[in-house]
Amino acid sequence: MQFDDDAALDTSEVQDNRGGALGGIPGGGKTVGGGVIGLLVVLASVVFGVDPGLLSSGGGTTTGAPSGATGSGDLAAECRTGADANSKQDCRVVAVVDSVQAFWKQTEAAAGKPYTQATTWLFTDSVNTGCGNATSEVGPFYCSADDKVYLDLGFFDELSSKFGAKGGPFAEAYVIAHEYGHHIQDLSGTISQGSGQGRDSGSVKLELQADCYAGVWAHHATTTPDPRSGKSLITELTTSDINLGLDAAASVGDDRIQQRYQGKVTPDTWTHGSAAQRQQWFTTGYRTGRVAACDTLGQGD
Predict the structure, then answer these.
(1) What are the residues whose beta carbons fall under 8 Å from the beta carbon of 189, sequence distance 6 or more?
(2) Which partner from 51, 59, 140, 297 sits 20 to 30 angstroms from 9, CA to CA?
């Protein structure tokens, strides 16, 4: 995956709170991780595919909101152009967020719908959100209560070390695009249909649709013009890039995670879909490039 070296990045869409001081939890709020499972899901956020009950280290330590948040000032100094995105991971996150949001803004406008920007919030270890307090153990997630995507960049290392993915820049881009797929579901109102467990549950169908939406963005990634320059921010996606995205999608399939951490597969408890399903729906979005092709809720795959 290559970015236009001369493209200007918009860091206002990413808030960098890594290393911020952690304060106490207002009102003694609950945490996600450490044995408290599903708090964010109950409050209508969507977790990327990690069951904290399986992955928690058992610490259950306090989490809180970063105090004295620095905003995107440091990123603004560090991440100015596509050349920076080609050489630095955090700048690459900025560039992917810019590309994904440019695509959805253009697509929603063409459909006569308003698109509201969603900020990506970078954090380390733990964070207080509109959906509750979360640790990094839950993986990247979208919170519909405050319209933010939350991401600890350490997850991308864990994608390989814990889940066995090959990793790479486009694997990271797939994760981010998946979370913004949940933002589109929030804007359209379909996010409320994501409940229950099992291979045919609303939760699984919602997650597979977000995978499909990630594929739709990837289909258009090299042709979506940046609103400021009129040129595409991403200049190249190779077959190898797409394959790494598919590999990442498979690595966070419910069956793969359950087999790795439980030693058995229990489809009745699935919330995100199997490895094959996740690959299938990303591929559907990528090959067609059509939002309408992502009707997992209606087709009931």
Answers:
(1) none
(2) 140
